[in-house]
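Possible regression after last week's pipeline update?

I re-ran a chain I had predicted before the update to compare outputs. Posting the input and the new output here so someone can diff against the archived version. Not blocking, just want to make sure nothing changed silently.
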Amino acid sequence: MGEDIYDDELAEIQRRKLLELQRRMASEEERKRRAELEAQKQEILRRILTPEARDRLNNVKLVRPEIAQLIEEQLIMLAQSGRIAEPITDEQLREILQDIYSKSRKDYNIRIREKD
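New output (post-update):
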C-alpha cells in the first residue's frame, strides 16, 4: 500500500516536470519565432529607409513605441506591395511623423470658473 502512494507521487512529479519542460520548449520556440520576425522586419526597414531615417525611427521608438510600431507596419506593408520604389529619406520620414502627430494630437480646453 505504501508503494502505491510512493508510485503515485513519483508519477505526479514526473508529470509536472514533463509539463514544465513542454512549457519551456513552447516558450523558447515562441521567443525564436519572434526573434526571426523581428530580424525580417529590420531587414525590410534597412532596405526601405536611409540610415538617417532608421536612426530617427529608432529614436521615435524610444519615446513613442506605439507610433514607431504603427509606422514600421505601414512602411513594411507598402514595401511588400511594391509601393516604395526608393529608400525613404529622413525628411520624408519627418513629414510622415508630423502628419501622424498632427492627427493623433489632442487639444485640451481648460475652463476656469470663478466662484460667485
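Follow-up from reviewer: compared with the archived run. The longest helix spans residues 2-48. Marking as no regression found.
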